[in-house]
Amino acid sequence: MERFHWVRHRCRQLLSVDSERGWYSPPDGFPSKSSLQRVSGKRRTVLARHGPHQQEYEAVSRKYKGNGIRTTKYSLLTFIPMNLFQQFHRAANLYFLFLALLNWVPIVEAFEKEITMIPLLVVLTVIAIKDALEDYRRYLFDKKVNNNLVRVFCGKQKSYVDRCWSDVRVGDFVRLSCNEIIPADLLLLYSSDPRGVCYIETANLDGETNLKQRQVVSDSSLQGSDFTPESFHSRIECENPNNDLNRFKGYIEHSGEARVGLHSSNLLLRSCTIRNTETVVGIVVYAGHETKAMMNNSGPRYKRSQLEKRLNTDVLWCVALLIVMCLIAAVGHGLWVKNYRHSVFQVDGEISPALAGFYVFWTMIIVLQVLIPISLYVSIEIVKLGQIYFIHNDLDFYNEQLDSRIQCRALNITEDLGQIQYLFSDKTGTLTENKMVFRRCSIYGVEYPHVENARRLEVYEAEQNEAAGHTVTLKSVCSGKSMSCRSLSCNRSSVSLHTLTAESPEEEDQLSNHAAARTGAFCSRMAKDVVPDPELVRKLNSLCSSTLRLRDSSTESLSTLELTYITDFFLALAICNSVVVSSPSQPRHVVPEAQAPLKSLEEIKLMFQRLNFYSFSTPQIKSSPRSFTSKLFTRGKTGSFNFNTPPSNSIDGSDLALDTSQETCTLKSKVDLPDRWDGEDSAARRSLEDLENFRDLKGDGDGAKQNVDLDRDVQSDEDSDDELLYEAESPDEAALVHAARAYHCTLRGRSAKSLLVDLPGIGSLVVQLLHILPFDSNRKRMSVVVRHPLTGQVVVYTKGADSVIMDLAEKRRGSEQAQEIYKHIRQQTQKHLDMYAREGLRTLCIAKKILEEDEYEVWLKRQLLAESSIENQEELMLDSAERLENDLTLLGCTGIVDRLQEDVPETIEALQEAGIKVWVLTGDKQETAVNIANACKLLLSNDRLLTANCGSKDACAALLEELLIEVRREVDGEESSLHSTSNFILVIDGQTLEWALQDELKASFLELSCKCKAVICCRSTPLQKSQVVQLIRDKIGVMTLAVGDGANDVSMIQVADVGIGISGQEGMQAVMSSDFAISRFKHLKKLLLVHGHWCYHRLANMILYFIYKNVMYVNLLFWYQFFCGFSGSVMINSWVLILFNLVFTSVPPLIYGILDRDMPADTLMKLPELYGAGGTTKIYIPATFWITILDAFYQSVVCFFVPYFALAGSDVGILSFGSPINTSALLIILLHQVIESNTLTWIHMLVLLLSTILYFGFVLIYSAFCVVCSHPTNLFRVETVQMSQPLFYIICALTTFIALLPRMLFRALFNSLHSSATLRSAQRDEEAAERYRQRMQRWNMKHTGPSSLPVCADNPGLEPSGDEVVS
Amino acid sequence: MGKTKDKSGPLARRPDNSAFKQQRLPAWSPVLTANTVLPFFYLLAVISMLLGVWLLLLVQSTQEIKLDYTDLGNCNECFDLRRNVSNAAQTCSCRVEFSIDKTFKGDVFFYYGLKNFHQNLRRYMDSRDDGQTVGWIKKLKNPSTYCEPFAKDEDGVPIAPCGAVANSMFNDSFTLTYHSSSGRRVPVPLLRKGLTWYTDKNVKFRNPRTDNLTLAQVFEGTRQPLYWQRPVYSLDPHDPNNNGFINEDLIVWMREAAFPNFKKLYGILNRADANFEKGLPRGNYSIDISYNFPVQHFLPIAYLVTSSLILLMAVVLTVAWWKFGKDGKNMKE
């Protein structure tokens, strides 16, 4: 098979080369020697297509592929020969061919010559049609991709014109704008970004949604405002095409100038998306099949289903059976010839018995050919197509948000879905949404549970589970929105909070769908809209208002220290990141010029002085220079918030009133919020503040007027807010920035040296950015060094993994009291961290450190030294960072939900119950992986975690051994006591995995992992993922399934027996290489448990039935040989004989294989144990095969000998004898299927009826009109005469009864006495539920009369114990 | 069904929520349990029983007498003579006498039977040409190669009818005589027509078109099969319309028997004759045949046995159901 595929591949390559040469259409006769050398060498030269070196260009790029892609197997011309060639590669078809040819040998000829060709022709035609359709689909897809438009520089028109992707050539200049997909591998020559960078999103390639920065070729002559392709005279030398995504080497050589090196950050890869950059221009260096994306997309592996492998052995058994039968016939014939050598009926009397036997052997092979279920192979393909059709049409696999169904890309492994034993899953984007959402935080040792926020997330979840029933109402909401949202006073009070929030995301989905506008990475609504914690808001507000109440600090409810903590915390969230701010209209917010302050700064200054007074972390109060503080205020708009405005209403509103009304805040929000929330989505995050305003205003006399002002201000503020789009390198960062924004700590813009931040109550501030120490996996943290906008101090904000930060924040100096407070904060925060981790949240700690100026100076020197050093720069940088990031002050921690996709825990639980081992293979870090495993219930609280992180191979070997001993002891001990699955979970990191996968350690790794309930591989590379899958697949010999969403999962998906791609918004690579593409992880549950189960059962039953059918029918012919001297005579007309399998009894098994349901879908979903992988419910095993064969033998004996005894000794003709036999065989075979079927729909009935009618119709018409056809078995009038006699029917009836009796009896006994334990338990469950329901009803009935207690009605726990009801 | 779907909406690719596509078609699940099967079994047993009894009565009312004349009377001489194929041309006749104890009432059929004659041998069956016997002139002179080695004689003259089947045609003739109680020998009149299916005589077997030629002229240029004593156009000396390919004995013979032991219809008692109006009276007869076979009782007995088997099973099932299944766990629904 492999070899054949290779040949096919070669053929395709040759063909495609030919056709693509046609595309280039280079004038021949330019074979300059130098260029040929270059092409044949290991490098490729790229010149501008429309540049000055026309001739050289053509010569050089003659051999380069165009950008058109062709993934089809055949073309119109090559279809017939290639398809035939491919088909005859199948043993089955060769066997057919062999039989057809054998029948042409006169001495062994059994049937008319043409007849044996029919099955072959039918099979070939059916398969060819199927292949053609499949290929046509691929063709359409290619066409769609090839016909995408892109703007390419045209030499004649001297401008960029729209061209199809397929017309792009190497050397073309391509101009792309934001959100466009890159058509080929481009060398980035120009970017509209002044820094010469461009951002791409590689989701299509590797599933990562973060933005990657690409750099214009570092060559000053190219970068400029006016890049013109005409002026490009350079020559690019680079590697030949290869499939390494991260490697690109070469240089660009200008005429006469020095060479400039090229590297992978200059390359824009095909199928990535340009983000956040207005315009880029690149020159195509690799196109079409030579691009890195396509080179990585090696054609899908031919997957052969497990069942088919099993089937093949059984087909071999059938072959053996055939040979035995033929041998018996041969020997029998030899003996017979010996006895009757000189009889009058002996035609060739001179032949020796041995030779006669030899001839008969071959004749019998033709006669009994049906025994080998050849048509079975075709039937299986058709059945799988039918199964695919139903899987494809399943409503449960439809995703409304994406308007996508399941895609079935592999057509031949449906039943493997029912046999999965190991499931390998990617994490990000597969288990999780890959959307990080801020969930809760802890500051100053105080936990803010963000109850509303949690509720909001739940609401989202609930909403997602709901069907899109509200579409119509949503539309009306949508249309109403544009008019009403600008006014806060629009009242839609009748709508409750929950329904509103439930509907709004759909609104957005719809909008985004229609507008088809992607707003940038991680800007999902869910991440953006964080509902602030009211308590925290209150504290934050009191920060502002406290400026007005400086003197009565005794009544303060919170310490000013805590306030500084909170402010610093949010400031850190807003600035300690590498988030880029942009808006759709404006690519990037740069820090605007500082404006003159409009308000007096007195209050602010006072406040910070006050804060610093109590702050022990700052050793000394540094009054900021007035000139600096005056710069802080850039916009007067901030003053519009009531807590900033100094008017009387804030003052006369007493503190007490403020506090009490704050307490009612949560209650109020339920009432008041909807009014505004339905107005505008973005209003949500402001709602609490608005509430504040309203509350204050209500208490105020002249509230109405204020209200108007406020409206205006809020609106204008919102307008500007809405434009902000955060594009982060990691989704966590985006989540944190959005969280900060919810508390009005808004990051507004970023430039290289400064950041623009809004602070609550203060307004926009320019924060001087001194340093960024980017995240790296060793330090597990990142820091920014800034000059504090208010105090002017140099402050380090650090954000990182909890373990690291907690260690770094250990040592504290300061007063006794301070230390105590600090210790308390640490303890509390640690407690909260643990809680978050248990909840499955991703935790990050935020800390800060205030540097003295001289301290900073010292560090700066070292840092600059480190930056400028060339040797061991990394080390020095690390060293420098570590010197800075110590003695940190812990501010607090955050809990981020990497939200699991909906129903992931349930799905995993169900899959595990179904006996499937679930492994998680992720490139993510260990903590996250474990967190997610926790969240998705892969890791339960009583599971034991085995962690394998080793630094060396020897250590790894030792560790594996050690773990193995531990696990063995435990597992063995458990096994002796009770049969429970082990609860070990192995967590292994990439480095260790690398060693574990080496040959010496493979065995122990395998044993260890097999003994574990689940394995989590983190930090693993795509290659490792596939190696792991391969190891399990090959060494344990189980069915594996890999599911992933990104290109990093492609290799794993291809290696696994069943590869599933998750097609979210992003990533078509995984989908392209997968066998099935679903849009949600939860779909796996139904796909495996229901469709997999069904497909397997259907196919297995159908195969058994098919084998039964063939054996049963063929044996009729075999028994006859005992009465005709083993001469190979048949008592059935040869056409009927051939068509019996091909036509009369072919469709019912297909329907059986497509539509039969052994159990209803909801039962299968409810009881995952019914899944077949456990081995207990396997149908297609040797035992069932042999039982089937035996039953077939029995039935054929009955079917033959009842008519035989009924007609023996009479004057019955040979075909008249065959007639009742054939008819009863048909009836038996069809009724057998009825008995075996689990469900019979009208389709079954129709098909069964049609089969019968077809048989009788054909036989009658054929026997009525065909006078001299089908030479030795002339059926003329035989059937019509037979069927007019009652004897015929009496024989048929008796035969059918007796033949089917045992199976009926068996089925009846089996179903009566035995039903699977699981089913019984299910019934018991149902009954229990039913009984419970009835009991509740009765109870309610009883109690609603005199005194109704509605609380109890829906709370079963409150059912009075005295009310025991008889079951 | 007939509804046209708007495929441009946001849910354009949403699958139809039809019962068929969602595999929710109403289905009858034939879960065979004792409950469902038992009534059926009892019913079946009763039907089989009735059928069996009816058939038995039917069979009882028919009579059969078989005579193996191979060694009977003076037929063994002929048998020895025929053993040698070269003596095919010599005539040999013999007589067998037998008596009937009971009158054969109604229609009486006369068969000849052969034992261990494999008419169903594949090579033998192949060796015929339906095109020739259907009366195609072309085939008459140019028989199909299937007929080999009986297509042409040593001189290359085509054989009509060709092939091994025709060549080995059974050509004994019988005269049945009734020895009445008075000692008078009455020849039993046998109808030698209507032995074949109507279509065989009129469609499947036709003489080549004569066009004013006599049958002998039509068959000129062909020769009779090697074993035959008379050419095909004069098979029946008594009835010129029964000659050629439409000779009824030939047609009967050409329909190959299913088993090596078989019988073929030779004649039907002509009940137009006053003596045999009611059938074949009891008394002594003479014919070359004798061999007594038991009457065919298989079908009625099979039915009766099946009936009792089903009944037995039904009872077993009832007991099983009574003992194990009745507590209702699995029987329910």
TrEMBL record, chain A:
Active site: which residues?
D426
GO cellular component terms, semicolon-separated: endoplasmic reticulum membrane; phospholipid-translocating ATPase complex; plasma membrane
Superkingdom of source:
Eukaryota
Under Enzyme Commission nomenclature, its number is 7.6.2.1
Say where the protein is mainly found: membrane
GO biological process entries:
phospholipid translocation
Q: Which reaction does it catalyse?
A: a beta-D-glucosyl-(1<->1')-N-acylsphing-4-enine(out) + ATP + H2O = a beta-D-glucosyl-(1<->1')-N-acylsphing-4-enine(in) + ADP + phosphate + H(+); ATP + H2O + phospholipidSide 1 = ADP + phosphate + phospholipidSide 2
- Membrane topology category: Multi-pass membrane protein
Q: What class of enzyme is it?
A: translocase
The P-type ATPase N-terminal domain covers 57-116
Q: Which Gene3D superfamilies does the record match to this protein?
A: Calcium-transporting ATPase, cytoplasmic domain N, Calcium-transporting ATPase, cytoplasmic transduction domain A, HAD superfamily/HAD-like
Q: Which residues bind ATP?
A: D426, K427, T428, E733, F775, K799, R842, T922, G923, D924, R1019, K1025, N1048, D1049
Stretch list, region Disordered? 1338-1367
Q: Which residues bind Mg(2+)?
A: D426, T428, D1045, D1049
Enumerate the spans annotated as P-type ATPase C-terminal domain.
Answer: 1071-1314
The answer, when asked if Protease is one of the entry's keywords, is no
Single Gene Ontology MF annotation: glycosylceramide flippase activity
Q: Which UniProt keywords apply?
A: ATP-binding, Endoplasmic reticulum, Magnesium, Membrane, Metal-binding, Nucleotide-binding, Translocase, Transmembrane, Transmembrane helix
**According to its UniProt record, what is one Pfam family this protein matches?**
PhoLip_ATPase_C
Q: Which NCBIfam families match?
A: ATPase-Plipid, ATPase_P-type
Say which family it is in.
Answer: Belongs to the cation transport ATPase (P-type) (TC 3.A.3) family. Type IV subfamily.
State the name under which the record lists this protein. Answer: Phospholipid-transporting ATPase
Which organism is this protein's natural source?
Xiphophorus maculatus
Automatic annotation (TrEMBL), chain B:
Membrane-traversing stretches: 40-59, 301-322
**A GO term from the CC aspect:** Golgi apparatus
Q: Which InterPro entries does its entry note?
A: CDC50/LEM3_fam
Looking at the record's lineage, which domain of life comes first? Eukaryota
What keywords are annotated for this sequence in UniProt? Membrane, Transmembrane, Transmembrane helix
Swiss-Prot/TrEMBL GO biological process terms:
phospholipid translocation
Name its cellular compartments. Answer: Membrane
Coiled-coil ranges (or none): none
- Pfam families on file: CDC50
Report the sequence similarity comment from the record.
Belongs to the CDC50/LEM3 family.
For this entry, the protein name equals Cell cycle control protein
Native organism taxonomy: Eukaryota, Metazoa, Chordata, Craniata, Vertebrata
